[in-house]
Amino acid sequence: MGWKHEMWDVIVVLLVVLLGASWVSLGTASVSYDKHSFIINGQRKILLSGSIHYPRSTPEMWPDLLKKAKEGGLDVVQTYVFWNGHEPQPGKYYFEGRYDLVKFIKLAQQAGLYVHLRVGPYACAEWNFGGFPVWLKYVPGVSFRTDNGPFKAAMQKFTTMIVNMMKSQRLYESQGGPIILSQIENEYGPMEYELGAPGKSYAQWAAKMAVGLGTGVPWVMCKQDDAPDPVVNACNGFYCDWFSPNKAYKPKMWTEAWTAWFTEFGGPVPYRPAEDLAYSVAKFIMKGGSFINYYMFHGGTNFGRTAGGPFIATSYDYDAPIDEFGLLREPKWGHLRDLHRAIKLCEPALVSGDPNVISLGNYQEARVFKSKSGACAAFLANNNQHSFAKVAFGNMHYNLPPWSISILPDCKNTVYNTARVGAQSSRMKMTPVGRGFSWQSYNEETSSYDDSTFTATGLLEQINTTRDASDYLWYMTDVRIDSREAFLKGGKWPWLTVYSAGHALHVFINGQLVGTSYGSLENPKVTFSKAVYLRAGVNKISLLSIAVGLPNVGPHFETWNAGVLGPVSLTGLNEGKRDLTWQKWSYKIGLKGEVLSLHSLSGSSSVEWVQGSFVAQKQPLTWYKTTFDAPAGNEPLALDMNTMGKGQIWINGQSIGRYWPGYKASGACGACNYAGWFDEKKCLSKCGEASQRWYHVPRSWLRPTGNLLVAFEEWGGNPYGVSLVKREVASVCADIYEWQPQLMNWEMQASGKVTRPLRPKAHLSCGAGQKITSIKFASFGTPRGSCGSFSEGSCHAFHSYDIFQKYCIGWNSCTVPVTPEAFGGDPCPSVMKKLSVEVICS
Ligand code: GAL
């Protein structure tokens, strides 16, 4: 009996250990993984994912965005959970509107997508305070993202709340829901490195705490080389093919493949060529990667005061495959869709085992994947950024453009090359709609002492004072000037110097704006220094300090200061220098107009506005309001704010966000070649122009008539230059080589329907509801340039336009074969030709 008992004990213990420790690979759980891939319900998958952050668009936009993500070939949608949106006050939760997380996840499932939920709760994401509620900073004894009791308690509480919510809605895959993965923390590795031991124990704690919540699906930590089992560590970056997970039995995962980069006020707008993005993804997959997430697939908008930074722009477009307004960005979206289809054709071979690596030259290699059932897929890479390569593979030769990868789902035929874009390009336009606005204005007070004013000796830190209830904090003080001062008798004016920790500052003397200073993301600090006129007697110095989003990244970013911390001084007085830092200062949080809720329907009618010719222009600190009717149609809308300086906009009481077209983009915008290593400084646009000119107005925020538009302008601008515009496709282009591989052709051949080689086709498709109205350019031969600026080369088929005239005009879309016959015969035999065409959509 005795030994039997012991045996059973041992077996039970063994079973428990086995089930507990290797649940991830037993296949009992619905989502598991091994070295080659994640496994969902027993099926190995190459997972293609994209980030869409739910509060960066409206619930009305979600179904369409998710549909476009699915049609773009994604399997998964990834989002952070935005703590400060969900718990604006301790214990007061909000899950409505743009923060309806459950709805978003359910819509994803309806669209046929899985979800990767990055609970964090630290997000980073260029989101205000990295996603942390500002009140968290004031929890006694708290220290963020380290081995700190109060912080860990708050983090655990929120994480548990979210996990329980997901469970109760049965949203985990293990319950039949779409969530296949969760993330805890975000890019903590670099932070841990800075913090040392407490960082390390915090990371271990976070992993253990998360795993202990029993979601039934794996947890992920990105940029966390020491992520403890069973947590999967993942890579973020512009390229991640070099990455390998910390254990041989974990899949190779890329949580953030950056589709470009964010825009900051004052910075140019980054973009990333589709060819390079596709190359980086194909390279990751060919090197054994099995999960890739585009950050962002739809970037969207930092509505309200959700932008982090400081200085992060309101647009979070990110040059993503779906643009800020929800329209397809072509050719990026289409080129990735084609890539995804090519990868999926290779899936059976890709998930089956390690590839055979064959060198094809100094910069060229092939990787061949084979499955037991006989599937074979090959990737041929030319990593040389300067030259074409002709490589021998199997018993064929293949031409590889510079910095490109060809995909051969049958190890023979190329169906896709990352540098050969078969998808159409489109150019967008912003067309004014409706009549000009008829404005009314209201002057904000420049030195307003009222019930809410309070005083202190010396200068207060801004965030501690406002708790981020407003961007604005007034610092006001009195300066007595003796009538015997020399400058009053024709001498030099005294200098006022103000040092501020950031982010922007307007200086008023006796109610008059005397100057403005502001920092940048790189250096948020502000120094104001100027000769100012003061009168004999008492002068009022009023400093309006403005926070432009709270920091979201960096070691202990929660401790970074903002506001006028001093010193503040006057020099050039009879006495020499007078330090104002430690005298009595009066404070006021927010603007009078904010207190009055001028942005809202009821608030805006509580004061008297001036109209007609009295409407203020080029005047600082001015509120503007107008009403307008919703334009017909369903194109996305925006406000063109180019003639304004800096401020905020509201529509029907909802905040569109901060605007700052007065901050011009400084930087070097040059030509940008797709080939070669990309980083966020390589490809830039809008230098010398406003970093952000257009501000998204969600259609769903409008009613048919009488919409209230309110703007608060800090600098002084011309409101009559503001217009409502609709965004639509202006023209579409195709740029396709003869014999360029196309997936559809390969599919037709593989199915045995055709035996002869097939020529590629050009597909042109205008926006919904539009028609092709004219052919701007068409040339079959050796045309040059790119979409928008094509020109004929030395070889040009005389009848290049005819076929488009015949088959495209009057239609929403058309398809034309890229063959000499289609253009009236070969204009230059034995020369490699292509078709470039641009058609106008209206
Ligand atoms: C990553 C971070 C993201 C986002 C990104 C830049 O490091 O994880 O949340 O901030 O950088 O857009």
From TrEMBL:
CDD domains: Gal_Rha_Lectin_BGal. InterPro entries: BetaGal_gal-bd, Galactose-bd-like_sf, GH, GHD, Gly_Hdrlase_35_cat, Glyco_hydro_35_CS, Glycoside_Hdrlase_35, Lectin_gal-bd_dom. Gene3D superfamilies: 2.60.120.740, Galactose-binding domain-like, Glycosidases. It holds the Pfam family SUEL_Lectin. GO terms for molecular function: beta-galactosidase activity; carbohydrate binding. The keyword Hydrolase applies. It catalyses: Hydrolysis of terminal non-reducing beta-D-galactose residues in beta-D-galactosides. GO terms for cellular component: plant-type cell wall. It is an enzyme of class 3 (hydrolase). It comes from the Eukaryota. PROSITE patterns: GLYCOSYL_HYDROL_F35, SUEL_LECTIN. Belongs to the glycosyl hydrolase 35 family. This is Beta-galactosidase. It comes from Ipomoea batatas.
